[in-house]
Design goal:
The protein is α/β, with parallel strands linked by helices. It has one domain: Alpha-Beta Barrel (TIM Barrel), CATH 3.20.20.140. About 40% of the residues lie in helices and about 15% in strands. Strand 2 and strand 3 form a beta hairpin. Helix 4 runs parallel beside helix 5. The longest helix has 21 residues. It is globular and about 50 Å long.
Length: about 325
């Protein structure tokens, strides 16, 4: 079977080796697991831990090959995407350009097997647009990473970012919306991270998506492609509540109209959750994803095999939707 994994993480080691030399916060430090620990601006809570499997693309491909399928991958940044917006504007631009060059090099080395997505620093809108144009028009990356938070002031729905979303819509590339661990970690602390990892990330990505909706961004940009990770977070399950209370935002349509315009992946260790995402968003709006190396692709495939899908729908889920949504 041919499969495109739409939610896959490879982090370029050369980038982290250079960033580890940076003093102060935000910073990355080599850890005992063969990866890096990322600590955000002002040493805030919500550290991101990685391990060796994040950095060896060849071994990652070997793992995929062992599944017995032809698996191609789309690499997004994940929770580290906030890093570029916690740096001073010029430094954030340079770091994002370096990241994007690494993604483009891997995409060129493994054509048709690996697709990369762009880091964008969002603290300065003009810089964000310049980096975006370079990543898409010069480096041919296939999407843009949108962190769930860039801090409390401003949020990702800040008025000043409207030109950025204008440009993303014109370019026709998707935004990969992913939690960052930058918020909610303080109130969801303890239990060795179990509460934050299991609930905090779902809440963050759900809040971020609703900001794009309630602000009117999705309404003003009808062709904007937003890929909401992790089976849509809490929104499919709570869509009725969003409609009941979202009327106060004064949108033309109910919030669920815009939720259903988003795309999502199958990243959930819960078969009923995956099935509900497919039922809610529709088979044409859901792509296979594993969150590898955070999750096990073999388990992801097993859970999907337990859902009663036609051969046509499986083809959409595993290959065709990703090709169409991501313009592969």
């Amino acid at each position: 079977m041919h499969i495109i994994d739409s939610h896959f993480h490879w982090w370029p080691p050369h980038f982290f080796e250079k960033m580890a030399k940076r003093e102060g916060y935000p910073r990355v430090e080599l850890n005992a697991r063969g990866g890096y620990t990322f600590t955000g601006a002002n040493a805030r809570s919500g550290d991101v831990q990685s391990w060796a499997a994040w950095f060896d693309l060849e071994k990652q491909f070997e793992h995929m090959d062992a599944l017995g399928h032809q698996v191609d991958v789309v690499s997004s940044i994940g929770p580290f995407s906030i890093y570029f917006s916690e740096l001073p504007a010029e430094e954030g631009r340079d770091a994002a350009m370096m990241w994007n060059e690494e993604m483009a090099a891997a995409q060129k080395k493994y054509p048709g097997r690996f697709w990369g997505t762009a880091a964008i620093p969002l603290v300065d809108t003009n810089i964000a647009i310049d980096v975006l144009d370079h990543a898409i028009n010069k480096l041919n990356l296939v999407g843009v990473n949108l962190p769930g938070s860039i801090g409390t002031d401003p949020h990702i729905d800040a008025d000043r970012l409207e030109p950025f979303y204008d440009r993303v819509e014109v370019l026709g590339v998707p935004l990969f919306l992913h939690p960052t661990d930058a918020i909610f970690s303080d109130i969801l602390d303890g239990y060795n991270g179990a509460l934050h990892l299991s609930l905090g990330r779902v809440v963050e990505v759900s809040v971020a998506a609703m900001r794009l909706i309630l602000s009117g961004l999705m309404e003003r940009h009808p062709r904007l492609k937003v890929i909401m990770s992790h089976t849509g977070g809490a929104l499919p399950y709570q869509a009725g509540r969003m409609d009941k209370n979202g009327k106060k935002a004064g949108l033309t349509e109910m919030p669920s109209t815009y939720i259903k315009r988003m795309f999502t992946d199958t990243v959930s260790p819960h078969q009923p959750g995956i099935k509900f995402a497919i039922d809610y968003f529709g088979i044409d709006n859901v792509m296979y994803g594993t969150d590898y190396p955070c999750w096990d692709p073999a388990t992801a495939l097993q859970l999907i095999s337990e859902i009663d899908l036609s051969a046509e729908d499986k083809q959409k889920l595993f290959v065709e939707n990703a090709r169409r949504i991501l313009n592969l």
